[in-house]
Specification:
Layout (H helix, E strand, L loop, with lengths): L8 H40 L7 H20 L9 H8 L5 H38 L21 H28 L4 H26 L18 H31 L1
């Protein structure tokens, strides 16, 4: 029975243990850097407001920005063994199947980040607020909370559910795109991924513009105000939600075959 063709939970755990032993110092430095940068950013923006008028909404905006920025950077450096020829060879001969390596990178670079980052942000933001409030009593609204964070409850249940689903898929798209680029590019994967997306986006925008102008779609009014088979906003949300899911699955497939190609 060949190792490279079989998925084993035991070998996956061994791969995680080996990665922890090898990278525990780097993980510690990364967490310390995250905490330090977050504290400095919080202090900067609070001081800009003279440590007043700092509301929970301000913390939410900061969290969203940092969540995406750090998440894209972190997932954009997945498969660190692919950054050089020597590391690639050493990574590929590890006693683990391709599926185990793929699942390990996917879980540690995306899913664990999504679970841990909000908790870490909440702890650091509240601890920083307590310390600053002790020295600067003017900072009163220093407690950060995720309560009320999300979509307004005024939307219908079906609409709210699909909007939430699209937001989740959008977050996954950002991280999975960076993850896929890291599996495909060896040198400067994040930069090349962003550059490739920019070219693709510009190409689609130009194509859409030429199509719009060529067919004079400005004066086009579909019967019953339907676009294809979409009758209203709810149908559009369903279609776009399913489309985002398919795109994410395709990106994961590309990253999987990129790993398999390097094995060959």
């Amino acid at each position: 029975m060949q190792t490279n063709n079989v998925f084993s939970i035991y070998r996956l755990m061994l791969l995680g243990k080996q990665s922890w032993i090898t990278n525990k110092k780097q993980i510690g430095y990364t967490l310390a850097g995250f905490v330090g940068i977050l504290v400095l950013v919080l202090l900067f923006f609070q001081s800009v407001n003279n440590f007043r008028n700092w509301e929970n909404k301000s913390g939410e905006v900061m969290f969203i920005f940092l969540f995406f920025a750090w998440g894209i950077i972190y997932s954009g450096f997945s498969f660190p063994g692919f950054r050089s020829k020597e590391k690639t060879i050493a990574y590929l001969i590890l006693p683990a199947s391709a599926s185990e390596k793929f699942v390990f990178e996917l879980v540690t670079r995306i899913f664990i980040y999504i679970l841990i980052m909000p908790l870490l942000f909440w702890c650091v933001a509240n601890l920083e607020g307590v310390v600053v409030h002790y020295f600067v009593p003017d900072l009163t609204n220093y407690r950060f909370s995720f309560s009320g964070f999300g979509i307004s409850n005024t939307s219908p249940v079906k609409t709210e559910g699909w909007i939430t689903y699209m937001i989740v898929q959008g977050v996954m798209f950002a991280f999975i795109t960076a993850f896929t680029g890291a599996s495909h590019f060896s040198k400067s994967p994040l930069f090349k991924t962003i550059f490739t997306l920019t070219i693709i986006g510009f190409g689609y925008a130009l194509y859409s513009y030429l199509l719009f102008k060529g067919f004079n779609l400005k004066d086009f009014h579909p019967a019953n105000d339907r676009v294809l088979f979409m009758r209203d906003k709810d149908d559009a949300l369903v279609v776009f939600g399913i489309a985002m899911t398919l795109i994410n699955l395709c990106l994961l497939a590309i990253s999987w075959f990129g790993l398999k190609e390097k094995e060959v």
